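Quick one, tokens below:
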């Protein structure tokens, strides 16, 4: 494993944590904008039905996956531009 790949590991972890926080914020804004209330329901929330629970989980998963891919790709592209080596 070369030095760039080793050095990228902690950077990737920090980007992942930041991306997770960003995804959570985006999800909350999207959930509110769709008119479903302030907070998304938990899977064990008695007051919400299957449809709303599964919609929230699906939407949250899609947003987290898209943000993770964007952050990972952006980080790798930046490292490649700076070092000439792809960090995978």
């Amino acid at each position: 494993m070369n030095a760039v790949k080793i050095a990228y590991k902690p950077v990737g972890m920090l980007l992942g944590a930041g991306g997770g926080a960003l995804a959570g914020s985006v999800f909350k804004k999207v959930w509110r904008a769709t008119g479903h209330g302030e907070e998304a329901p938990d899977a064990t929330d008695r007051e919400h039905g299957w449809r709303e629970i599964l919609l929230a989980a699906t939407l949250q998963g899609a947003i987290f996956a898209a943000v993770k891919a964007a952050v990972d790709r952006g980080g790798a592209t930046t490292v490649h531009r700076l070092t000439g080596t792809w960090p995978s």
